[in-house]
Every structure is written in structure tokens, then in C-alpha cells.
Write a structure and sequence with these properties.
heterotrimer; A alpha+beta; B mainly alpha; C mainly alpha; A: alpha+beta; five-stranded antiparallel β-sheet; B: mainly alpha; MetI-like fold; 13 helices; about 0% strand; globular
Chain lengths: ~375, ~290, ~260
């Protein structure tokens, strides 16, 4: 990564005595598509608003393109924002909405006309330039808001829950468009979302936030496959956590002693002390399920249990299995054969099995 | 949002604050000051609050409570205050009885009627208050429209004496302030969720019961706001008792006017005004709480 | 939805109560007789007399000047107050401003009138046009503030932030975004202040000086002597003018809503 476009250094921000962003550092690279993912109240929107200039950090610096922007008002920052509500000016036509920012900069009238037409064509709203926002559908308003924020060619586009107001079908379609648009324009996008699927499918990197801090920062696959903490593992997707004590940890692998079984896993880069508490996190789709009483072969980890219930989701089925310790383990299986599968009735004895590289050992 | 260019923000705050302070707040302090002075034959006709001794030194405080003693001891002033409170209270209750069914009907009227009905209620409120009070003189006087109508249908054979009595003052107040009562009532009743009434009916409440137990309690904020909104200015009313009332109809607002313009006793008029304000402080505070809660 | 007969009758009687006095006043302004309650045929003679009475015309002109000037000042002061209260968060003096905006609305006018007069006397102001304008502008500002405040509250803050984000300074944002969106409410506020000023007797009586008689003061001094057809004629003109203004204003406000001032959804 060359010199970062945005650098947040030691940002603190509180409202009425409550700390919302807590000593946060973050670098955002040129051309990146970064998601700030977290539950409501985690500080992600406040962080976005500090980059935009609507909030001033209590401490720390916001540096954009090498220039300290900490005290600079929003109207003097090379940053534009797309609002969750879209915030279109209701008294202006689509054309005037999009032209608004260029007019503020005193851009030549003919140039404004050209650029407005160009960007409206890009978001396929060229035919609706003379309409008022109230005459547009939700999806159309979203496009206008996007065009309005992009027309000034900002170095950085901030998007606050840009797809939250759209219905599910439209949202999935728009996601793809957003990714294509970002690639085409090469502008850095920072998006705030509470929807993990959105963060996964859109971004090149995800920052998972919790309690005003970044819990984990990395590409979507890494966040999902190698969560850094139990909190991240549980917030991003579903997970089974097996609590236990490390009894062995060396180059060949790690053994975690749990009430149900001694589980085997890959050893991480940093060696973990034997005798310490840890958790093995295993995603439900990484667990295989075998009916019957015959213990399956070829798996490093096998646990006996009884099927509690099955949730049928069409493409998938979710099996909840009670194991000896009293815990419930969830396994998700694709319905490759006609449902219901034989031998998987309620109360039936089953085996849960997963490989050594399926789980992640967590100490936090 | 701090740390922005100041000028703009300060201007938006300071200009209205300064204007209202200078022309609304400060004048009250002056009234308070002058109510503590004594009337003198001079311009202005009251004694100074601070008497500066000749040749320098600390000023002597010229404040005296004489005016307040007069207000509290003279039967005329006490009576005019009590009278005003009584007339305002009776008028408020009558208005509530007239306005509630009207507001209820407006709130339940078909949606496309409502703007027109609302306009019909607001329109009289915009047209001159003075003219609307004046209109009642022609109706209420001995040979006015009302007596004409009643006598021609044979209900009475002697004209009713209404003009220049407390009756006329009540009628005038009810008529003039009615829109102020209807509007807040309509606002709360219109917002009332009709499914609540359906729920009440579903749970077995007959209409009169669901009115008493659901509609009425939920419209209480509107009742309180409307009542205070008409009661407070009605207490200080001057035009209506002056034009429609008789010489024995004394209300505090009229008394202030007379002390001020006819007797030219500014300190006493100020003391009466302050007394009136003190009496109204409680309802004013209640109204403010109602507007914010 | 259906209205029960009781409600329908109550509404009809209530509206009749509100309008019968006004209608009688208007009808009898066209009465040929000097006796206001006896119909003696249609005539416009009182209108003729009215328009040849220079004292009335002068008072009307004075009232109009006062109303336009004071409503305009009220618009500026009231709009700024509303903006400060809705948008500028917590500032020192906010509670004071709230109190000073709301109190004049319900304060008995006799009290406001006395206090303003005593202020002008203390400051040695020449009483007349200027002092009446100040009195009316102060009362009008409260009405403007309340009306505009109600509108600003419904405007989402995002819209102003969007303007700032797109490079508009706070002043430009106010001019290009807030003002156009608040315009219908501001117009309504101006009209309200205008009508109040045109209507006010008590404040004007306290703070006026020699040579500054407003129309209500003139009407009042005549009305105390009883009903005269000329006052009926004058009242009719005022009522018709104000009603037209109100109806047009409410149509304007509605029209602007239809054109997309309200945000759908």
C-alpha cells in the first residue's frame, strides 16, 4: 500500500460523557473499498461523520491525502457523503440536486451541465433529470443520491448504510452495481453497514467495530475464516464455540481438552501456553453430520450427540445437536438429497465430525 | 458541530435574543420598578427608584410597596381581579362544551373535508378581533337582531337586556376565543389512533364507555392546552368588557386601562399589572409544561 | 367514516355561531337605513361615505404601513429565533429564548402594552409609527417563530448536512436549502404577523403618539359610541380582504406541498 489516503490517528470521541469512539487508529488506502461493520452504537457512524467533518474528534487527528483535516469544516473537505436517508433536496429537481455541489465550487455552467448529464447517465437516471425527489421510487432516489455525491469527483466517498432503505431484491442488485461503479471510477469508498453480508460482498477490507474500537481489520474472507476474537466470530456469521484447556501446542498442532472430546486444531503462528483456557470456533457449515451409531472415519474431531431439531431453509437445513456436556452444537448441511434425509429424525443418535483445519483457536 | 466559523451562528442567536430581551423582558422589569414608585405630577409621572443625593454619594432606594397595599386593600381591585378570573373560568368551561363536539366532529369528518373545516375555524380567528366583538353590539342590544328575532317568533314580548351586562361579556369571550379552543382539541383528537377505539369495542366496551375511558383521557392534553390558551388572555381582556359590558362589569384588564389612561396613575396601574401577572404565573407555567410534555 | 347526527348538528351550530355575526355585519353594511337593525333596501352609500372620510383613510394607510413594516421585522427576528431553537443545539440563553418566544403569545395584551410604553418613556423614544412597529414586530416575531419552528422540526437535519458536505457554507446552506424549504411557513408567519398588526388595538393604544392613529383605534373610538353603518362598511372591507388573503395563503401552502416540498415516505 502506497501512502494512505486517509489516516485516523488516536481518535477519541464522546457524547455527554459516554465514549463512542475510543483511541482509534485506521489507515485507508487509495482506491480501497472499506466497510465499517458493527452493531448499532459501535461508533461506526460517528467515525464516518468525523471523516466527513460533521463531528470533531475530542482527541486525535483526521488526515486526508496528507493534509490534517481535523478542524476543517465539511464544506472544505475533498470528501462527499451519501446519506442513509439520501437527504435529497426536496425542492430541487434531480438535475439541480446533482448540480448543487458543482455550483458551490463555481464550476462553469456548461461544464456543470456536461458533468451532471454524464453522471446521471452513469447511474441510469438521465431520463428523470427534471423530476422532483418525491416523484421517484426508492431505488431511483438512491441512484440520484449516489450521483450527487460522485459528481464532484471526491477523493473519498462515504456511504452511510446506502442500501438499508431498499427492499431485499433491489439491495442485492444494487450491491453489484456499487462494486462495478467503484472499480470503474477508482474512487475510494468507505461504507458504514450493520449488514455483514453487505460488508462481505462489497468491500476489499472490513473493519469490524465494537464499543468504539476496531476489533479486527482485514479482507472479508479472513474476517470470516480467521476471526480474531469470539466477539468477531459471533458477530460475523454463526459459530460453535467449544471451550476447553490447551493440553498440547507444538509445530504439529494443538490439542484442546473439552468436556466432550479432546479436539485437534492447527497451531497458530504464535505458540500458546499449555494449560491456558481457549475456545475452538467452528462454523456450522464446516461440521459434517452422520446418522447412526457407527463412528465415522477420516476426521480429526468426532463428537457423539443426539439430534434435537432440524430447521428446514430450502437450500440448507440447520441441525441442532445436543452433545454430552449439555451444550448444543449447530451444523448446517446443504440439502443435496431430497429432504427429509433418512435417519435424521428427532432424538436420533448422530456423529458430529470436522477436520483439523476447520476450527480456529481463540484466546479472547 | 463546534469549531465552525462563528459569525453566522452567533447572529442567528443574538439578534432574536437581543430583540426579545429589549422589547419583551426589559419592559417587564421596568413595570416592576415603576410599580414600586409613587405617582407625581411630572413627565414621566412617577418618582425615581433611586434617589441620588445632591453632591454625590450612595443613592437612596425609593422603592415603596404602597401601590401593592392599595391593590390588595381596595375592594375595587380585588373584586375586579376575582371578577375577571370568574368570567374567564366560566367562559372557558362553556367554550370547552361547545368546542369539544365540534373538534371531535372535525377529526372524524371525511379526510377531504378536513382542510376546509379547519380553514372555516381558522378564518374568524384571522379576521379582526375588534370587528368581531363589535358585531355583537348590533346583535345583543335592546333593539338588536336577537331581540328582534325572539320577539317576532313570540318567545318573548319584552326585549331581553343582555347588552352591557356580564352575559354579553361571557358571550363575547366565548365567541372571540372559540377557535383557540377548537384547534388544540382538534390536533389531539385527529391524532387519536382509531384502532384503539376498535380495540375497546372488541374488548366489549360500548361507545359511551370507550369515549369516557379512551378518547377523553387521551385528549386531555388538548383540553388542558386549549383551556389555558383561552383562560389566560381572557383574564386580562379589555376590549370585550369595555364594548359589551356595563359600567359595573369590572375586569382587571379594564381596571388597568382606566388607571393608566383616565387616572394617569402609572405606578398603580403597573402594580395591578404585576399582580395580574403573578396570578397568571401558575397557569402560564402549566401551559409551558403542557407544550413541552 | 360517518358522523353521528349529534356531531353533525354540533358542528353545524358551532360554525353558525362563528359566522352569523360576521354575515349580519356584512349584510347590514349594504343597508340603506341609518338604523342598523332595520332593513331598508340595498345601498352602497356607507361605502361612499367611508371613502370620502379622510380620517379613516389616513388611519387605514397608517395601519397598512405599520403592518407591512412590523410583519417584515417579525419575519426576520422570528425566523432566526426558530432556526436557533431548532438547529443550533444547546446554547447559552436557549431557555430564555424559548420563554421569551412563547410568553407573548398568551400574555394579556394590557400587560405587554403597559410595559412597552414604560420602556419607550424610559428611553425617551418619540412615540408614533416607530414604537407601534416595534410593539407589533415583537408580538409578531413570536407567532412567526412558532410557525417556522413547526416547519423546521419536520425538515431532516440530513438535508442541511448534505448541502454542507457538497461544499455549501453554512450561510449558503441557509439561503439555498433552509430558506426555500421554510418559505411556505415563513409566508404564513408573515401573514399572521401582518393580520395581528392590522387588528391590534391595545398595544397600539398604549404606544402610539399624536398623529399616529391606527385603523383599530379609529374603529374603537367609533364603536364605543354604538353601531354605525359606516363601521359596518369598513368592517366588511377588512373581513373580505383578510379572508381572501388567508384563503390564498393556504392554497399557496398546499400547492407548494403538492409540488414536492414534503418528503414522501
Amino acid at each position: 500500500m502506497s501512502a494512505p489516503l486517509v489516516r485516523l490517528e488516536g481518535i477519541d470521541k464522546g457524547f455527554g460523557g459516554q465514549r463512542v469512539v475510543d483511541r482509534l487508529d485506521l489507515e485507508i488506502g487509495q482506491g480501497e473499498f472499506l466497510s465499517l461493520l458493527g452493531p448499532s452504537g459501535c461508533g461506526k457512524t460517528t467515525l464516518l461523520r468525523m471523516i466527513a467533518g460533521f463531528e470533531t474528534p475530542d482527541r486525535g487527528r483526521v488526515v486526508i491525502d496528507g493534509i490534517d483535516m481535523t478542524g476543517v469544516p465539511p464544506y472544505r473537505r475533498p470528501v462527499n457523503m451519501m446519506f442513509q436517508s439520501y437527504a435529497l433536496f426536496p425542492h430541487m429537481t434531480v438535475r439541480d440536486n446533482v448540480a448543487f455541489g458543482l455550483k458551490q465550487d463555481g464550476v462553469d455552467r456548461r461544464e456543470i451541465e456536461r458533468r451532471v448529464r454524464e453522471i446521471l447517465d452513469l447511474v441510469k437516471m438521465g431520463d428523470h433529470a427534471d423530476r422532483k425527489p418525491a416523484q421517484l421510487s426508492g431505488g431511483q432516489r438512491q441512484r440520484v443520491a449516489l450521483a450527487r455525491a460522485l459528481v464532484k469527483r471526491p477523493k473519498l466517498l462515504l456511504l452511510d448504510e446506502p442500501l438499508a432503505a431498499l427492499d431485499r431484491r433491489l439491495r442485492e442488485h444494487t450491491r453489484l452495481e456499487l462494486v462495478n461503479l467503484q472499480r470503474e471510477l477508482g474512487i475510494t469508498f468507505v461504507i458504514v453497514t450493520h449488514d455483514q453480508e453487505e460488508a462481505m460482498s462489497l468491500s476489499s477490507r472490513v473493519a469490524v467495530m465494537n464499543g468504539g474500537r476496531i476489533e479486527q481489520l482485514g479482507p472479508p474472507a479472513l474476517i470470516y475464516e480467521r476471526p480474531a476474537s469470539r466477539w468477531v466470530a459471533q458477530f460475523v456469521g454463526d459459530v460453535n464455540l467449544f471451550a476447553g484447556r490447551i493440553t498440547q501446542c507444538n509445530g504439529s498442532g494443538l490439542t484442546l481438552d473439552t468436556p466432550d472430546a479432546a479436539l485437534l486444531a492447527e497451531a497458530g503462528a504464535a505458540p500458546l501456553a499449555t494449560g491456558s483456557d481457549a475456545w475452538l470456533a467452528v462454523r456450522p457449515e464446516k461440521i459434517e453430520l452422520f446418522p447412526g451409531t457407527e463412528r465415522p472415519d477420516g476426521f480429526a474431531n468426532v463428537i457423539a450427540g443426539a439430534l434435537v431439531d432440524v430447521g428446514y431453509l430450502g437450500n440448507l437445513s440447520v441441525y441442532r445437536v445436543a452433545v454430552g456436556s449439555g451444550a448444543t452444537v449447530v451444523a448446517t448441511l446443504a440439502n443435496r438429497r431430497p429432504y427429509p434425509a433418512t435417519g435424521l429424525d428427532r432424538g436420533a443418535p448422530v456423529w458430529l465430525a470436522f477436520t483439523r483445519d476447520s476450527g480456529v483457536v481463540l484466546t479472547a | 458541530m463546534t469549531g465552525w466559523r462563528p459569525g453566522w451562528r452567533e447572529a442567528a442567536i443574538l439578534l432574536p435574543l437581543a430583540w426579545l430581551a429589549l422589547f419583551f423582558l426589559v419592559p417587564f422589569l421596568i413595570v416592576l420598578k415603576i410599580s414600586l414608585a409613587e405617582p407625581i405630577l411630572a413627565q414621566p409621572p412617577y418618582s425615581p427608584l433611586l434617589v441620588w443625593p445632591e453632591g454625590g454619594g450612595w443613592p437612596a432606594l425609593g422603592a415603596r410597596l404602597d401601590n401593592y397595599l392599595v391593590v390588595l386593600q381596595d375592594d375595587l381591585y380585588v373584586r375586579s381581579l376575582l371578577n375577571a378570573l370568574r368570567i374567564a373560568a366560566v367562559s372557558t368551561v362553556v367554550m370547552l362544551l361547545i368546542a369539544y363536539p365540534m373538534a371531535y366532529a372535525m377529526a372524524r369528518a371525511p379526510k377531504n373535508w378536513r382542510p376546509a373545516l379547519l380553514l372555516a375555524v381558522i378564518l374568524p380567528f384571522w379576521t379582526s378581533f375588534l370587528i368581531r366583538v363589535y358585531a355583537w353590539i348590533g346583535i345583543l342590544k335592546d333593539e338588536g337582531f336577537l331581540n328582534h328575532a325572539l320577539m317576532s317568533v313570540g318567545l318573548i314580548d319584552q326585549p331581553l337586556v343582555i347588552m352591557n351586562t356580564d352575559w354579553a361579556v361571557h358571550i363575547g369571550i366565548v365567541y372571540s376565543y372559540l377557535p383557540f379552543m377548537i384547534l388544540p382539541l382538534y390536533a389531539t383528537l385527529e391524532r387519536l389512533d382509531l384502532t384503539l377505539l376498535e380495540a375497546a369495542a372488541d374488548l366489549g366496551a360500548p361507545p359511551w364507555k370507550s369515549f369516557l375511558q379512551v378518547t377523553l383521557p387521551l385528549s386531555l392534553p388538548g383540553i388542558v392546552a386549549g383551556s389555558l390558551l383561552v383562560f389566560i388572555p381572557a383574564v386580562g381582556e379589555f376590549v370585550i368588557p369595555d364594548l359589551l359590558g356595563g359600567s359595573d362589569t369590572i375586569m382587571i384588564g379594564k381596571t388597568v386601562w382606566i388607571e393608566f389612561f383616565q387616572n394617569a396613575d402609572w405606578p398603580l396601574a403597573s402594580a395591578i399589572a404585576v399582580t395580574m401577572l403573578v396570578v397568571l404565573v401558575a397557569p402560564l407555567a402549566l401551559l409551558r409544561r403542557g407544550l413541552h410534555g | 367514516m360517518k358522523l353521528s347526527p349529534f356531531l353533525l348538528v354540533a358542528l353545524a351550530l358551532g360554525l353558525a355561531f362563528l359566522y352569523v355575526p360576521i354575515v349580519l355585519l356584512i349584510v347590514y353594511s349594504f343597508n340603506d337605513s341609518r338604523l342598523v337593525t332595520v332593513w331598508a333596501g340595498f345601498s352602497t352609500r356607507w361605502y361612499g361615505q367611508l371613502f370620502s372620510d379622510s380620517a379613516f383613510l389616513e388611519a387605514a394607510w397608517m395601519s397598512l404601513k405599520v403592518a407591512v413594516t412590523s410583519a417584515t421585522i417579525a419575519l426576520v427576528v422570528g425566523t432566526l429565533a426558530a432556526y436557533a431553537l431548532v438547529r443550533l443545539g444547546r446554547f447559552r440563553g436557549r431557555m430564555l429564548m424559548i420563554g421569551m418566544v412563547q410568553a407573548p403569545l398568551v400574555m394579556p395584551e394590557v400587560i405587554t402594552g403597559i410595559s412597552l410604553l414604560l420602556l419607550f418613556v424610559s428611553l425617551n423614544f418619540d412615540r408614533g409609527f416607530g414604537t407601534i412597529v416595534i410593539a407589533h414586530a415583537t408580538l409578531g416575531a413570536s407567532y412567526v417563530a412558532v410557525v417556522v419552528q413547526a416547519r423546521l422540526v419536520t425538515l431532516e437535519r440530513d438535508i442541511e448536512e448534505a448541502a454542507l458536505d457538497l461544499g455549501a457554507t453554512p450561510a449558503a446552506t441557509f439561503r439555498q436549502v433552509v430558506l426555500p424549504l421554510a418559505a411556505p411557513a415563513m409566508l404564513a408567519g408573515w401573514l399572521l404577523a401582518f393580520a395581528l398588526s392590522l387588528d391590534d388595538l391595545i398595544l397600539a393604544s398604549f404606544v402610539s403618539g399624536p398623529g399616529s392613529t391606527t385603523l383599530p383605534m379609529k374603529i374603537y373610538s367609533q364603536a364605543r359610541l354604538g353601531v354605525t353603518p359606516m363601521i359596518n362598511a369598513l368592517s366588511t372591507i377588512v373581513i373580505v380582504a383578510v379572508s381572501l388573503m388567508v384563503v390564498i395563503a393556504s392554497l399557496l401552502a398546499k400547492g407548494s406541498l403538492v409540488r414536492g416540498d414534503s418528503r414522501a415516505g
